[in-house]
Amino acid sequence: MSRKVQLTVCAVMVHKKRVLLVLHTKLNKWLFPGGHIDENETPDQAVVREVKEETGLDFKPSDYGPIDYTSDIIERNAVPFHANVHSVGDHDHYVSLYMGTVDSEKLEISPESKDARWFTIEEIDRLDTNENIKNVAKYALSRKL
């Protein structure tokens, strides 16, 4: 029997040598801000919208790939730095992770999250969360954006 797969996006952002995670209300886990791609929405639009909804921040994806097309392109879209499929219980999520930046660290926590915080690499090491989240956070902190 095949499982239902939903398309999702996550934003991985570093500001002042800290990475942002949100404590998801329903899952009670520290995760990167993100969510489902809505109908008629590009992944870029979804990740920017989700970050704004969950944190109040204006996310700017940082990688648009090495090729600069000049004609017949309606909109240039960011390239995810990682993607995976994982189970969320009764269905799976295909998630594209986007690296990007924000101009502020001031957070507005939404009802979708119990908390939102900026974590240093030392705090990530001590955090009680999935090893995949820790590995992505450490990767992001090791890059210069």
Question: Please, could you describe this protein's structure?
Answer:
It is a single chain. By secondary structure, the protein is of the alpha+beta class. The protein has a single domain, classed as Nucleoside Triphosphate Pyrophosphohydrolase (Alpha-Beta Complex), CATH 3.90.79.10. 21% of the residues lie in helices and 33% in strands. The protein is built from 3 helices and 8 strands, in the order ββββαββββαα. It has helices at residues 43-55, 121-126, 131-142, and strands spanning 5-15, 18-24, 30-31, 34-36, 60-61, 82-87, 92-101, 113-119. Strands 1, 2, 3, 4, 5, 6, 7 and 8 form an 8-stranded mixed β-sheet that branches. β1 (5-15) and β2 (18-24) form a beta hairpin. The longest helix is centred in the middle third of the chain and has 13 residues, at 43-55. The N and C termini lie far apart (42 Å).
Topology:
Elements: E1 5-15, E2 18-24, E3 30-31, E4 34-36, H1 43-55, E5 60-61, E6 82-87, E7 92-101, E8 113-119, H2 121-126, H3 131-142
Parallel strand pairs: 1-7
Antiparallel strand pairs: 1-2, 1-4, 2-3, 2-8, 5-7, 6-7
